Amino acid sequence: MDQQSPSSSSSNTTARTPFLLHQQPWWRRHFHINNSLSSEISGAVGDLGTFIPIVLTLTLVSHLDLSTTLIFTALYNITTGLLFHIPMPVQPMKSIAAVAVSETPHLTTSQIATAGASTAAVLLFLGATGLMSTLYHLLPLPVVRGVQLSQGLSFAFSAIKYIRYNQDFVASISTTPRSWLGFDGLVLALSSLLFLVIFTGSGDDHNVNESNDNEPRRRSSNRLKIMSSIPAALIVFLFGLVLCFIRDPSIFNDIKFGPSKIGFLSITWEDWKVGFLKGAVPQIPLSILNSVIAVCKLSGDLFPDREVSAAKVSVSVGLMNLVGCWFGAMPVCHGAGGLAGQYRFGARSGWSVVFLGIGKLVIALVFGNSFVRILSQFPIGILGVLLLFAGIELAMASRDMNSKEESFVMLVCAAVSLTGSSAALGFVCGILLFLLLKLRKMECSGFSKFKSWPAIDDETNSIP
Fold first, then answer.
1. What are the Cα distances from residue 401, in Å, to 138, 432, 455?
2. Is the model more confident about 228 or about 285?
């Protein structure tokens, strides 16, 4: 029998290669971790700078069930991580949380739930009908960048307040200047900041292989890779947890093991009215802009091959809250700041939020509602440092504005959003400014004819 030629064997191998790749297990194709495990776990804590203060405030002020919230947000984290294949965050609906603690009297748990469910119903409708995708493709990029810039700077400003001043989350105010020394002093916060800067730098990846003929640069690149592989954010967060027990050793006596009992909320028509008018109405535009539009745009910037669909993200937010709010879980969304924070500290796949979800689930099942005693002693300065990096990373997404006109629209949108404390107001101003600038450039036939009249008259007068 004749032996098969090498070329024939090579062609057969090539022909079989796509089939073999197609036969790989589904979990290997979609959920393979290309990044280091330590980086993924470190990135998982990147959005806790916003998550912990809001959850702690709602627990203390509105008597939110922390155990139920941790269980449901854990399930959301695991599900979205497996579905979207990127570190899709699960964060509190900030406008609802702000209204809940600022209203007098404070919103009840049932009213918070109806606000979240009402917002979820709107987002589910927009996503399921395709209107959210249409809106996403029609919105001008400078306006979206303005929303991202304002949100990022807002996070950064709040982070500086956390670092510089003591915080009263129940009253939602900054109090006395933070002392230099102590387990929650300025020295601790600045040391954490310095540690993160040294080991994570500006957040750039260091995967470029330097040529062998440039030995110093190659050694520097290898050193940066080693430093970046250290889970710096996770180390800082775990150090903060240790300090909780050092600051108040009585925590050990207050810990009760086991989760709280999960049950349906009792909701009245009055709860629906208050929740919709006071909570959902200001939250809906913020969720559309920051939880869907900005998240999808940022996912395309950070993961060009894995940009998520606006319709899917909108449906995801809707389904999460229509499931969890009936049981008293905190209303949540997908925030661009959370995605930026997780990416900043090393998250590159959905496994990062899966690990976060597993951690939340373990904490909820082991400690239950007694975990709030631990969170109440967590150093706020460290949370401010984590939030600062997340805010700066989100704001830097706006650096791709290439023309003065685009930058002008973006900055006006951001300025109005910041000074007016409303992303919706900044968005409307940005859209109007964008349209006005485009209208200014349009050719107007009547105006062109008017400009040509003097020239025609001159030609007519010059005829003998």
1. 18, 18, 40
2. 285
In whole angstroms, give the CA distance from residue 394 to residue 46. 12
Averaged pLDDT for residues 208-224: 66
Nearest to 389 by CA among 442, 345, 351: 345
184 DSSP 8-state letter: T
In terms of pTM, does the model score above 0.70?
yes
Which residues partner with 165 through β-bridges? 177
Q: Quick one: CA dihedral 50, 56, 60, 64, positive or negative?
A: positive
3-state DSSP assignment of residue 171: coil
SS3 167: strand
Q: Which amino acid is at 296?
A: C
CA distance 143 to 365: 43
Phi, psi of 91 (to 5 degrees): -125, 160
Element (DSSP H or E) covering residue 175: strand 173-177
Query: Angle between the 380-395 and 232-247 helix axes, to the nearest 10 degrees?
Result: 160
Burial profile 280-315: b = 16 or more Cβ within 10 angstroms, e = fewer: bebbbbbbbbbbbbbbbbbbebbbeeeebbbbbbbb
Average pLDDT over residues 171-188: 92
Cβ neighbours of residue 343 closer than 8 Å, sequence gap 6 or more: 43, 46, 87, 203, 302, 393
Query: Cα–Cα–Cα angle for 24, 79, 296, nearest 5°?
Result: 90
Percent share of the chain, pLDDT over 90: 66
Q: For residue 18, give the 3-state DSSP assignment.
A: helix
C-alpha to C-alpha distance for 133 and 188, rounded to whole angstroms: 45
